[in-house]
Write a structure and sequence with these properties.
It is built from 11 helices and 9 strands. By secondary structure, it is α/β, with parallel strands linked by helices. It has one domain: 2-enoyl-CoA Hydratase, Chain A, domain 1. Strand 1 and strand 2 form a beta hairpin.
Length: 280
């Protein structure tokens, strides 16, 4: 068993764990009290965990999940609204000449969202995959979604743009029309609809997303790996195209200073909780 340790802003708490068994690496976000929202320390730990997975010759497939019944509630808006995340965000600018997300890894706001791994990653989604959490799910190669789970771009309501590859990957997964529906409206998509539109690849009973994703990972691990990885690489965007798209998306981060910080502060004050957006 291998572990990757992160540090939450409140003290030395493990925010990300990493365990490899029989070729499957399970990487878990461990902030259940915050519905696994990602603060800067957690983002850094996720980035390091996936780099370690990529370099581990015993690991063939990764599963990304969240502890405590929620996949990920996105970037921690309390951290963003208070300014506590400013140092992290300000260090994430993408160089103009960056063109190789596979061999020149850069962290994104949510951690691994700018990586292009050689090995597949499966999202195991219970509960909410919100905003940056949905972007992490879209970054994964396959998505297992439990009944009762929901995927949603709630950040639209707070003036926080998608800057972790969501505007790049969602149109490739869903097509332009369906991705517009999610991106522009910010509405929630429950598991059954997610399956019908292609956002989810497998549906399972509530509470069984991790088990189902790990079983799928075990199936992939039994295939001839060189062949699978060659096809996996060929089926995706060329690294230079992905880098250019992520550079273009990152220009939207200036919107956060104009609208998002105030919106994040409204969220931190209690607005919009439990899906009530009548007074935000």
């Amino acid at each position: 068993m291998a572990e990757t340790t992160g540090y939450a802003s409140g003290g030395p708490l493990m925010t990300v764990t990493c365990e490899t068994r029989e070729g499957t690496t399970t990487i878990s976000i461990c902030r259940p009290a915050a519905r696994n929202a990602v603060d800067p320390e957690t983002a850094r730990a996720l980035f390091e965990a996936f780099l370690a997975f990529e370099q581990d010759n015993d690991a063939r497939v990764a599963v990304l999940t969240g502890r405590g019944g929620s996949f990920c509630a996105g970037f921690d808006l309390k951290s963003a609204g208070s300014g506590a995340a400013d140092h992290w965000i300000s260090g994430l600018d993408i160089p103009d000449d960056w063109s190789d997300p596979m061999n020149d890894p850069l962290p994104g706001p949510m951690g691994p969202s700018r990586l292009m791994l050689r090995k597949p990653v499966i999202a195991a989604i219970e509960g909410a995959a919100v905003a940056g959490g949905l972007e992490l799910a879209a970054w994964c190669d396959l998505r297992v979604m439990a009944r009762g789970a929901i995927a949603v771009v709630y950040c639209r309501r707070w003036g926080v743009p998608l800057i972790d590859g969501g505007t790049v990957r969602l149109p490739r997964i869903l097509g332009q029309g369906r991705s517009n529906d999610l991106i522009l409206t910010g509405r929630g998509v429950e598991a059954e609809e997610a399956l019908s539109m292609g956002l989810a690849d497998r549906l399972c009973a509530e509470g069984e997303a991790l088990q189902t994703a790990q079983a799928l990972a075990a199936d992939l691990s039994r295939f001839p790996q060189a062949c699978m990885l060659a096809d996996h690489l060929s089926a995706r965007m060329a690294p230079v195209d992905l880098a250019a798209a992520l550079r273009r998306e990152w220009r939207s981060q200036g919107v956060f200073a104009a609208e998002g910080r105030e919106g994040a502060a409204r969220f931190a004050s209690g607005k919009g909780r439990a899906g009530d957006f009548s007074d935000i």
